[in-house]
């Protein structure tokens, strides 16, 4: 069954089986893009459904359409943000001479998004529960913003750690540790840092100790993560409403005004009014 | 019956590595939690029209614990997997459930005090406070059970300590709201008996914000 296999594949990513050093050595990331994208869609829709529970409990014109809108918008938010930020990531990667091809890079990013969506989907129940029991729109906005932030952070952490592991392996392949060892005079006080073998079942977020990839590739990814976060935040503002303001009518989109960060601050302040 | 009691005793002083079975634990929560809830609901008396309150309160206490548990579990599962602790999750699950069951064992043992309190004092506000105190005692004592089961896990992998903190954060975040939504647990004798209080829908945190705001005079 396709869905079952897709779920298994995502599970393997979460368990870190796809990012074990042995697995990374052979290819880039051995995942099927199609399956993970399907999982991203399914989990995003699931979270969208949980998110729209708030609109279902309200009673304003067209509130039932919000469910459909949210289920489309949550996966769209992630995929559109990727669509916007991916070309520049690829170009800058190529510019600094990384070894990633388009497909390899895409696999890496999609895997990270898969981790984010898994976290997001699993938090859906909590959101649905609060949506049912809360009447405060501002609280729901802040809770959702917090949950998206946590999920996004975990996915990007996964990305950085996987990159870090790849860079250790790249350094190993060049045989750097051996050559350093060999060049040392025998009675030197200098201690060689031991590269610890990772525990067999360490998760994908566990740190591996070793030489950090020097250089530009990592800088490019760090910058990209910041850009991804900013674009994602603004994208969520462009695609709003996700939850549905109970004081107005349903709308697929709202007119251009303000920006994400201003809105979050205002919402937070409105809790105290 | 005797074997169930033995299981409850095992919870309080686990011997060796033997973990309680996952089948019995929810049952303990339902029976003992329900038992304390029923006692809690007797505040308004045992007359025919107040009897439903006993039933409601007896349903609400297990519901509070088990619903909070199930809502918090999926995200905790994913976080554990990401931390590479999936292989331990069976043990983690029974540790968490054992804590829930242990909490109800302790709570049930405190029920006689509640009865005595109800017989001695006739103030609804104080009755609420006393029950709050009993819940606090049970929750804090239950943490010792949780620690007892978690200690071997933490020894195996220190990451479990972080997970434990995370669990308590998620659980209390959901639990506080759950407790708020399921009000009234005791049932004011001046009001008609009902499962949910009318317009009790609301947000516990929002209320807290409001109280803070009022007390600082914003």
List the main descriptive attributes of the protein structure presented here:
heterodimer, A: 273 residues, mainly alpha, 11 helices, 68% helix, globular, B: 218 residues, 73% helix
Overview of the structural elements:
- The complex is a heterodimer of chains A (273) and B (218).
- By secondary structure, chain A is mainly alpha-helical.
- Chain A has one domain (2-175, 197-270).
- Chain A is built from 11 helices and no strands.
- Chain A has helices at residues 2-15, 21-26, 33-51, 53-57, 65-95, 102-122, 124-133, 137-173, 176-183, 216-238, 260-270.
- The longest helix of chain A has 37 residues, at 137-173.
- The N and C termini of chain A lie far apart (52 Å).
- Mean pLDDT of chain A is 82; it is low at 176-198.
- Chain B is an all-alpha fold and 218 residues long.
- Chain B has one domain (2-216).
- Chain B is 73% helix and 0% strand.
- Chain B contains 8 helices and no strands.
- Chain B has helices at residues 2-12, 24-40, 51-82, 89-109, 111-120, 124-156, 159-181, 204-216.
- In chain B, helix 2 (24-40) runs antiparallel to helix 3, helix 2 (24-40) packs parallel to helix 4 and helix 6 runs antiparallel to helix 7 (159-181).
- The mean pLDDT of chain B is 86.
- At the A-B interface, helix 1, helix 6, helix 7 and helix 8 of A face helix 3, helix 7 and helix 8 of B.
Query: Given the helix and strand composition of chain A, which structural class is it?
Result: mainly alpha
Tally the beta strands of chain B.
0
β-strand percent of chain A reads: under 5%
Report low-confidence residues of chain A grouped into runs of 5 or more: 176-198
Bin the helical content of chain A. 55-70%
The topology string of helices and strands of chain A comes to HHHHHHHHHHH
* CA-based shape of chain B: globular
- The number of distinct helices of chain A, counting runs of at least 4 residues, comes to 11
Q: How large, in whole angstroms, is the Cα Rg of chain A?
A: 22 Å
């Amino acid at each position: 069954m396709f869905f079952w296999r897709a779920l298994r594949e995502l599970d393997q990513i979460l368990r870190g089986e796809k990012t074990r050093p042995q697995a990374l050595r052979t290819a880039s990331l051995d995942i099927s893009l199609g399956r993970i994208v399907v999982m991203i869609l399914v989990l995003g829709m699931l979270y969208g459904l949980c998110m729209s529970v708030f609109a279902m409990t309200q009673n304003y014109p067209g509130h039932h359409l919000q469910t459909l809108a949210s289920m489309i918008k949550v996966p769209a938010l992630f995929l559109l943000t990727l669509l916007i930020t991916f070309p520049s990531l690829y170009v800058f990667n190529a510019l600094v001479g990384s070894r990633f091809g388009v497909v390899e890079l895409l696999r890496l990013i999609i895997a990270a998004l898969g981790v984010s969506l898994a976290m997001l989907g699993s938090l859906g129940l909590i959101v649905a529960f609060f949506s049912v029991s809360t009447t405060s729109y501002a609280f729901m906005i802040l809770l959702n913003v917090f949950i998206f932030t946590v999920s996004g952070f975990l996915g990007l952490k996964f990305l950085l750690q996987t990159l870090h592991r790849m860079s250790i392996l790249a350094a190993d392949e060049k045989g750097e540790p051996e050559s350093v060892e060999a060049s040392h005079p025998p009675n030197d006080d200098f201690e060689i840092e031991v590269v610890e073998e990772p525990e067999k079942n360490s998760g994908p977020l566990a740190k591996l100790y070793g030489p950090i990839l020097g250089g530009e590739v990592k800088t490019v990814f760090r910058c990209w993560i910041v850009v991804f976060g900013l674009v994602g935040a603004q994208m969520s503002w462009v695609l709003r409403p996700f939850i549905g303001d109970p004081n107005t009518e349903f709308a697929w989109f709202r007119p251009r005004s303000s920006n994400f960060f201003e809105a979050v601050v205002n919402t937070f302040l409105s809790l105290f009014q | 019956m005797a074997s169930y009691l033995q299981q409850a005793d095992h919870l309080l002083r686990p011997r060796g590595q033997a973990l309680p079975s996952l089948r019995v634990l929810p049952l303990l929560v339902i029976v003992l939690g329900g038992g304390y809830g029923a006692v809690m609901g007797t505040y308004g008396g045992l007359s025919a029209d107040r009897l439903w309150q006993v039933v409601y309160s007896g349903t609400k206490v297990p519901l509070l614990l088990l619903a909070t548990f199930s809502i918090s579990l999926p995200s905790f599962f994913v976080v554990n997997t990401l931390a590479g602790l999936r292989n331990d999750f069976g043990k983690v699950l029974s540790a968490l459930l054992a804590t829930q069951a242990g909490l109800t064992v302790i709570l049930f043992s405190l029920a006689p005090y509640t009865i005595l309190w109800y017989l001695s004092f006739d103030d609804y506000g104080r009755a609420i406070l006393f029950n709050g105190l009993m819940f606090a005692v049970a929750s804090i004592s239950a943490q010792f059970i949780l620690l007892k089961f978690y200690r071997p896990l933490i020894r195996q992998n220190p990451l479990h300590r972080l997970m434990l903190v995370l669990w308590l954060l998620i659980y209390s975040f959901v639990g506080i709201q759950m407790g708020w939504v399921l009000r009234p647990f005791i049932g004011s004798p001046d009001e008609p008996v009902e499962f949910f209080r009318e317009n009790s829908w609301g947000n516990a945190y929002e209320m807290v914000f409001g109280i803070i705001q009022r007390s600082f005079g914003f």
